[in-house]
Amino acid sequence: MGPGDLSEALCGLPLLTDGNVLRGMESLDDAGVYKINEELAIIQTVDFFTPIVDDPYSFGQIAVANALSDVYTMGGRPLTALNIVCFPTKSLDISILKAILQGGVDKMREAGVILLGGHSVDDVELKYGLAVTGTVHPKRLITNSGALPGDKLVLTKPLGTGIISTAIKAGEASKETIGKVTRCMAALNKQACELMQELGAHACTDITGFGFIGHAIQLADNSQVGIRVDSVKVPVFEEAKEFISKGLCPGGLYRNREFYGGRVKFLANTPEFLQDVLFDPQTSGGLLISLSAEAAVALVSRLEIAGVEDAAIVGEVVSEPKGKILVA
Length: 328
Ligand code: CO
Ligand code: CO
Ligand code: CO
Fold this sequence. Notes:
The protein has helices at about 55-75, 95-110, 160-170, 175-185, 190-200, 210-225, 240-245, 250-260, 270-275, 295-305, and strands at about 20-25, 30-35, 40-50, 75-85, 115-120, 125-135, 150-155, 205, 225-230, 265, 285-290, 310-320, 325.
C-alpha cells in the first residue's frame, strides 16, 4: 500500500480465494494472476485516470500504454481489453472522446491487443483507461518478490513525468518538452518485457503513482532485500530540474516523500533535485527490473537496439538492510 491508498478500505474484508490464485489482493503486486492449468495463467489488471496532456489522441495512447504495463511488468502478454470511459457529455464535445478512443485503439493495435468492448458513463470529470487480460506460463511469471542480493536494477524510462505534467498544467512546458514526455508515456513496455523474459529476470515492477522510491520499496519488501541506488545513473528528463526549482511539483511527490521518506537514506552527495525526482509519481513509467549483473548489461544494450534508449542500470540489490533504500 502507499500514501492515501484506498485499498486500505479492502483490508479485513472476507475474500474468497482458491489454490489457483497465484497473485491476489494481499500480494501488493502489479496485477492479479489466476492459474487456469499447468501451462496457462491469466493476468488481470485495470487502470484509468483523468487527462494528463491536453491532446486527446495522445491521452488515449498514454492511458492504454499505462493500463497494459502491469501485464508486461509480470512478464505476460496482453491479449484483450475493455474500455472504461467516464465522459462529461454536457461540457465536452463528443469529438474529443472519439479522438481519445482512436488513440487508444491505435496503441492497442501496436500492442497486438484486441478490444472486446467496454463501458461508459456520463460523469462530471473525464476519465479513460482499460481493463486488461493477459496470459503467462505459470512458471514464467515475474513478480516483485524474486529480487536476489547481487542483482542489478535496470530502469527503462526516464523519471520526471509527474513534475512535467504539473508544468504542462501551469502552462510552463514548451511544445518540445510536451512532445518528448508524451512519446515517453505513450511508449509500450512491451520490448522491455520480452527482453527481460529472454534474459531470465528475477523480479520486476513498473514505476507509477508511488514514484521510483515507493515501487522500489515494494520490491524490496516483497523480495526481503535492500536496494542501493546510484542517483546519477538514474535517467531523468532534464527539464524536471528547472521545473522543480520553480516549485512545479505534483502533490503526490510530497505525499510519496512523507510516506516512504523514512525508509530511504540519501548520502550527502546526492543532488537535491534528484531526491525530489525519485519521489515523483509517474504515469506510464518504465519497468524496474532485477536481474543478474551479466543479464543487466545485455538488457540495456538490447533495449537500446530496440529503440528504448534511456534504459540504464541504476542500482543493485543487497541483502541488508531489508526494506530500505540507500541513495548515493
Ligand atoms: Co504497476
Ligand atoms: Co496499475
Ligand atoms: Co456494461
